[in-house]
Task: inverse folding
């Protein structure tokens, strides 16, 4: 496996990407979430790219405008459509044998792919899509329910409750918040739904069940959507050993569809 840096243009700016080369004709476009550079949190994306490429699938990562090594102004994921299109074009130019591209994004990178109807990719793997339009720091009811369910499965927490070490006032208040109905879907979630409806290829919606962002997504989405796959012990970035392996298997399965 070899890795090389690629520069390409996007609306008058210069973007920087990284291509992990492999011989396959199906490739992975790995989109960074938040304001992460293409190495991702703690270089997790770089490790994932190397591992996927070792399976025979080329992987392209990039910094959108105003992030990392790329020039321009950072417009956030809502304005990243041109960046996605430019990155896909660069990937195909650098690897002209490509016949199929799978787009993968976590958090608002998943949202960006949804808003842009897949951004020209043939298949999508969307992890923990960001649907929170106004983040005031208050966990959604679904997240509170998940937290209390986890506590009630923990014998130590039950012992604390039995011995009076848990504030009943806080407990009652928390249960009350957990029982509130989910807020109506935001316009962001509705736009993501509309964008994904325009996409005609295969879709995997991956949910890390210990993640607040994922719990908020489930609260704004149809939880019966057959495209949803859940990883019970995973946090947001799938850093746990079993969760990391699960994510890798999901991506490889999408590449081999």
Result:
């Amino acid at each position: 496996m070899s890795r090389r840096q690629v520069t390409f243009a996007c609306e008058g700016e210069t973007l920087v990407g990284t291509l992990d080369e492999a011989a396959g004709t199906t490739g992975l476009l790995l989109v960074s979430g938040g304001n992460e550079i293409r190495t991702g949190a703690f270089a997790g994306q770089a490790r994932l790219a190397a591992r996927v490429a070792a399976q025979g699938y080329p992987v392209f990562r990039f910094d959108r405008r105003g992030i990392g090594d790329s020039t321009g102004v950072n417009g956030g994921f809502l304005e990243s459509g041109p960046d996605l299109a430019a990155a896909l074009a660069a990937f195909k130019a650098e690897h002209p044998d490509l016949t199929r591209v799978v787009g993968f994004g976590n958090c608002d990178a998943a949202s960006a792919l949804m808003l842009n109807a897949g951004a020209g990719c043939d298949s999508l793997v969307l992890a923990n899509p960001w649907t929170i339009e106004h983040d005031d720091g208050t966990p959604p009811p679904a997240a509170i329910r998940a937290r209390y369910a986890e506590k009630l499965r923990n014998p130590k927490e039950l012992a604390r409750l039995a011995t009076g070490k848990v504030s009943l006032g806080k407990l009652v208040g928390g249960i009350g918040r957990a029982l509130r109905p989910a807020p109506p879907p935001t316009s962001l979630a509705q736009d993501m739904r509309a964008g994904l409806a325009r996409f005609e290829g295969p879709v995997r919606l991956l949910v890390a069940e210990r993640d607040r962002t994922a719990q908020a997504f489930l609260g704004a989405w149809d939880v019966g959507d057959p495209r949803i796959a859940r990883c019970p012990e995973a946090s947001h970035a799938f850093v746990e050993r079993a969760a990391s392996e699960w994510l890798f298997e999901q991506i490889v399965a999408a590449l081999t569809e």
Observations:
- The first helix runs from residue 44 to 54.
- The first strand starts at residue 2 and ends at 10.
- The chain has a mean pLDDT of 88.
- DSSP finds nine helices and eight strands in the chain.
